[in-house]
């Protein structure tokens, strides 16, 4: 983050700004460090507040280097009792790989989500999460699954290449058999950021968003 640039308000704070006055961000430029498809609400609020926005995602998502573990899990899909998701990115990566006729392919397999946003991502694919963690974290998701899984149940956990949670380890307490193939990996995007760097240097960007630790 350059000198003089502040962290942009989250959507709730943006809404408060709109209540305080008309177009409070007029003539202001905001750098949004998330992909447009993942920041629609924030972009809409910023535009309503009069801001010009520049999208420069700091992270892009790619298929795993070795897709074979995930492909094997998909072949064996009906051997699992549950699929657990801890991010919307994992949801989209998994179901894109799974292909068409998702309800037919899912069969009896139930879906668990770490929180409402992840459950919403599941619904985007025409499916429903049967379990949504009460507290929106891996510990809460593991506790919820521990109450509905039987010892020896097989659970599929499509995950990022690097994860900060320990869902698989937490589920071992309940003697659940967890398979956790990599569904996607995150890396810096390959796009040219020269123009944005030039604007930052010249003070043409007044706010910078940071909506995650990765950003």
Topology, pairings included?
Layout: E1 6-7, H1 11-20, E2 29-32, H2 40-48, E3 52-55, E4 60-62, H3 68-75, E5 82-85, H4 88-98, H5 102-106, E6 110-113, H6 116-124, E7 131-132, H7 138-148, E8 154-156, E9 159-160, H8 167-172, E10 177-179, E11 182-187, H9 194-201, E12 207-208
Parallel strand pairs: 1-12, 2-3, 2-12, 5-6, 5-8, 6-7, 8-10, 9-11
Antiparallel strand pairs: 4-11
Helix pairs in contact: 1-2, 4-6
Describe the structure.
The chain has 215 residues and is an alpha/beta fold. The protein folds into 2 domains: 6-59 and 188-208, no CATH class; 66-185, Rossmann fold, CATH 3.40.50. The protein has helices at residues 11-20, 40-48, 68-75, 88-98, 102-106, 116-124, 138-148, 167-172, 194-201; strands at 6-7, 29-32, 52-55, 60-62, 82-85, 110-113, 131-132, 154-156, 159-160, 177-179, 182-187, 207-208. The strands form 3 sheets. Strands 7-6-5-8-10 form a 5-stranded parallel sheet, with helices on both faces. It has a 4-stranded parallel sheet with strand order 1-12-2-3, with helices on one face. Mean pLDDT is 85; it is low at 1-11. Keywords: Lyase, Porphyrin biosynthesis. One of its GO terms (molecular function) is uroporphyrinogen-III synthase activity. Catalyzes cyclization of the linear tetrapyrrole, hydroxymethylbilane, to the macrocyclic uroporphyrinogen III.
């Amino acid at each position: 983050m350059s000198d003089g640039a502040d962290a942009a308000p989250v959507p709730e704070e943006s809404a408060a700004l709109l209540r305080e006055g008309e177009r409070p961000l007029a003539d202001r430029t905001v750098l949004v460090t998330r992909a447009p498809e993942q920041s629609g609400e924030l972009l809409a609020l910023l535009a309503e507040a009069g801001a010009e926005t520049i999208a420069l995602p700091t992270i892009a998502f790619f298929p795993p280097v070795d897709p074979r573990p995930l492909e094997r899990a998909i072949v064996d899909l009906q051997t699992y009792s549950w699929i657990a998701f801890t991010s919307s990115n994992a949801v989209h990566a998994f179901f894109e790989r799974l292909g068409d006729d998702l309800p037919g392919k899912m069969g009896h397999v139930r879906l668990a989500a770490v929180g409402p946003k992840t459950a919403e991502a599941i619904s985007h694919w025409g499916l429903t999460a049967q379990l949504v963690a009460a507290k929106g974290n891996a510990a809460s998701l593991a506790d919820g699954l521990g109450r509905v899984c039987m010892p020896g149940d097989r659970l599929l956990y499509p995950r990022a290449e690097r994860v900060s949670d320990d869902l698989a380890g937490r589920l071992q307490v309940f003697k659940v058999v967890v398979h956790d193939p990599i569904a996607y990996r995150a890396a810096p995007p390959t796009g040219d950021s020269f123009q944005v760097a030039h604007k930052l240097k010249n003070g043409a960007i007044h706010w910078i968003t940071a909506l995650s630790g990765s950003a």
